[in-house]
Design brief:
Strand order of the largest sheet: 2-3-1-4-5
CATH superfamily of the largest domain: Ribosomal protein L10, N-terminal RNA-binding domain
Number of domains: 2
Helix content: 55-70%
CATH topology of the largest domain: Alpha-Beta Plaits
Largest sheet: 5 strands, antiparallel
Distance between the termini: 92 Å
Structural class: alpha+beta
Length: 165
């Protein structure tokens, strides 16, 4: 059943809002994904504050055409959905996790990150980026390494001196 003009306008408005408010958007091909798995995926995404919207390609392309986005838009083939969120990495990470579990049924076909179109490979690379908390932990570890090394060295010197006495 074709969509009415009012329904198309509503969907177009929703997609425009998603593009405006999201830190990143992932274009997802979900051909062959069972409905039960789709429900599980949406629930897990909601828990991570990631949205997942399915819309007609023509409406998505129209909404993208209204925005100023750098680069070249990837080819949007198959059944298309948008994964989006205010966290720049979470949408790509969530889709990549489900793509591993459901190989061949869901895939990243591109996206938008920092106002530019990204290829599927670039979005997959983004998905492999550790979380913010992990990166902060790694940074703290690097910053504390010199002090830790100094403490270990002083401890070894102290042990040698006490053994020689």
């Amino acid at each position: 059943m074709p969509l009415t003009k009012a329904k198309k306008a509503e969907i177009l408005s929703k997609i425009s809002g998603i593009l405006k408010d999201s830190a990143s958007v992932v274009f997802v091909n979900f051909h062959g994904l069972p409905v039960a798995v789709s429900g599980i995926m949406r629930k897990a995404m909601r828990a991570q504050e990631v949205g997942f919207t399915v819309a007609k390609k023509s409406l998505i392309k129209r909404a993208l055409g209204e925005k100023t986005i750098n680069g070249t838009m990837p080819v949007l083939n198959g059944e298309l959905a948008l994964a989006y969120g205010t966290d720049a990495v979470a949408p790509a990470k969530q889709v990549a996790d489900f793509a591993k579990k459901n190989e061949g049924k869901i895939s990243i076909i591109g996206g938008i990150f920092e106002g530019a179109y990204m290829s599927a490979l670039e979005m997959k690379t983004l998905a492999a980026t550790p979380s913010r908390d992990t990166l902060l932990g790694m940074l703290a570890n690097v910053w504390s390494a010199p002090a830790r090394s100094l403490v270990i060295a002083l401890d070894q010197i102290s042990r040698q001196n006490s053994a020689n006495v």
